[in-house]
Amino acid sequence: MFTGIVEELGEVTAVENLGDAARFRLRGPVVTQGARHGDSIAVNGVCLTVVEHEGDEFTADVMAETLKRSSLGALAVGSRVNLERPTAVGARLGGHIVQGHVDGTGTILERTPSEHWEIVKISLPADLARYVVEKGSIAVDGISLTVVEAGDEHFTVSLIPTTLELTTLGLKQPGDPVNLEVDVVAKYVERLLGDRVRGDAR
May I ask which residue range the UniProt record assigns to the signal sequence (predicted)? Predict the structure, then answer.
């Protein structure tokens, strides 16, 4: 489990095409501290497994399903990525519960700068719109953010200078894709209420 509090802005150093999969090598001095084979690291909000670890770099395999459902397939050597290790038991939950299971992708539509923050509008897939509410939580490229405005086809978030400086959202421009993970609690509630409406509740 992750919290959506990005630990560092890493970099893709190699991409190997494996046909129905890809192997990425990524640099992240912070998240590789103490890393071992089999550990989990979130890359732009996608939970990946460490295959190899050497120095401040690690490799991870990405299956076809993940490439299809996320924006990882668009990464290339030199791409910057958000990196986060799983939260430790007993640690503060600084963001919200993030599983690293991307629900879909959106696209940066607009950026509106202000003196102390920036409003970013992001497209929203139709099948995810019902899970996104004003003042609710959403993970964008693995970043725990609060929804400012929720529409049927888009939502907005307000970014503070720290987020702009330390994550990929400070770099991405209109037209760029982002990974989206909606609040898992909303999905569980929908499933439970759906069963109750159908009379299937146990």
Answer: none
Which residue shows structure tokens 């990929």?
168
**How many residues make up the chain in this entry?**
202
CB 50 within 8 A of CB 36: yes
Half-sphere exposure of 148 (CA within 13 A, CB side): 11
List, for residues 79-107, the tens digit of each pLDDT value: 999 999 998 877 777 788 899 999 999 99
> What is the CA angle 92-30-42, rounded to 5?
65
**Rounded CA separation 186/97 (Å):** 12
Q: What is the pLDDT of residue 196?
A: 63
* Cα dist from 64 to 72, 107, 200, whole Å: 10, 21, 34
**Cα 44 from Cα 57, distance rounded (Å):** 16
